[in-house]
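Deadline looming. Please check this record:
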Amino acid sequence: MFSVKVWKNPQVTGKDDTMVDLVAPDGSKATIFPALGFNCFSWQVASSEGSLDILHQDADLFPDGKPTRSGIPILFPIPNRVHAGKFHWDGKDYQLPLNDHIQQNHIHGFAVRSAFRVVNQGFDANSAFVTGEFQLSKDAPNLLPCWPADCILRLTYRLRNRALALEAEVSNPDSKPLPFGLGYHPYFKLPFINGLDAEDCALSCAANSFWHLDECLPDGRKHPIDAQRNLNSLRKLRGFSVDDVLTDLPAFHADASGLMERGRVQGSIGHAMTLNADGCWREMVVFTPGSRNTVCIEPYTCMTDAINLQQKGVDAGLIVLPPGAVHFSQVELRIVETPKA
């Protein structure tokens, strides 16, 4: 039987130290930190090779609590950057906090730096889950004037055998339309288990185009995928470096669960992690952090700076929810066996 365990982490300082473990019958486990943006910072999977450690965790995660460098940061109500933190919406100018590394742009929204409230948890013979909720007016009320409408993100982590799903429900409780985008920024550890050099791990993320970036910000132009960014088949990470927004993904064809593989990390000799998503995830950011043995495949519902570019006539993927409307989406990480070389 699956199970849920709630415990206190004495290493945490300055935040609620509650942790939630989702545990599978074979000992596989995912651990979530609700007070740090509902970040799932650990996912360990039992396998024939031993325990696979899928997610990267910074050494200073608990005492320092930086929410964007470990596990699965949740990016909402906008992923990635907003140019100069400024946008105009429905006749009004907005200014977001300037919080990127050069303090010139806004990055990654509000939820990632906020505590989520755990609103449900449970388990049965097939899965264990925990649901957290972030509402702008309740959980970051000082930032409510920075966004055109109040918003609610209800996110469920669901652990299954060799799979971890992220089930998101975004709703608009306001009387005004809600513009938003959602993104996940998982840091996948390389390798998943001892016995393979990090640079001999491999990555794929199929796409036909990429957005032209100037200092990490798109200007609305797209280019056909080139040799530098071509991840349409598995590519070893030795000598490979990238930080790009890939787009024009292959046409969506759902599997039996309603999802499609959008990325893959070969992180051990006999196992890979696949990232599977439903049809609303239209952009994939691929990032190789230089200082860590990690790789990021980041599904986004919209592109970087979408709230500005959409209003300039660029098809940027920004979603606008009418009052009372709800938007559902799902991403699932799966561990699959692969033929040994």
The radius of gyration is 19 Å. The CA atoms of residues 138 and 144 lie 9 Å apart. The chain has one domain: 3-337.
